[in-house]
């Protein structure tokens, strides 16, 4: 997992979330949401892999914060920032779902499923405060 870091140049104009400011960058918003919630999943409507991620987390008893980018005014800017976090400057890969656990970027559905299969997901969720069992 990697920490969300600042990258200049992406401005968010439609800040419609509590705590957001007019000059907040997309990376700042991602970092704020990830730091303020145990689990955050950035999704898009109609994304089947987003549905898989949601069902896995719900099945484990986690109540993550979901950000549906196609319903956000700043969705395109956040999507571009997520491409950057994925190391996909050419925008060749789908950046959603983008899963953050304990303020750190876990990745998409493949790393999420890999952590689940190898048994490391539940300890990550517990450490983040998303599970109390």
From TrEMBL:
GO terms for cellular component: cytoplasm. NCBIfam families: GlrX-like_plant. Keywords: Cytoplasm, Redox-active center. CDD domains: GRX_GRXh_1_2_like (cd03419). It is found in: Cytoplasm. InterPro entries: GlrX-like_pln_2 (IPR011905), Glutaredoxin (IPR002109), Glutaredoxin_subgr (IPR014025), Thioredoxin-like_sf (IPR036249). The lineage of its organism: Eukaryota, Viridiplantae, Streptophyta, Embryophyta, Tracheophyta. Belongs to the glutaredoxin family. CC-type subfamily. This is Glutaredoxin domain-containing protein. It comes from the Eukaryota. Its main location: cytoplasm. Residues 39-105 form the Glutaredoxin domain.
């Amino acid at each position: 997992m990697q920490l969300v870091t600042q990258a200049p140049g992406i401005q968010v104009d439609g800040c419609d979330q509590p705590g957001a400011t007019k000059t907040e960058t997309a990376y700042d918003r991602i970092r704020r949401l990830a730091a303020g919630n145990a689990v955050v999943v950035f999704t898009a409507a109609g994304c089947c892999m987003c549905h898989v991620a949601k069902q896995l987390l719900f099945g484990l008893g986690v109540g993550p914060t979901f950000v549906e980018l196609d319903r956000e005014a700043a969705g395109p800017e956040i999507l571009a920032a997520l491409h950057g976090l994925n190391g996909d400057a050419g925008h060749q890969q789908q950046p959603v779902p983008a899963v953050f656990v304990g303020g750190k970027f876990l990745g998409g559905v493949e790393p999420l499923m890999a952590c689940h299969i190898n048994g490391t997901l539940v300890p990550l969720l517990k450490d983040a405060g998303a599970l109390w069992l």
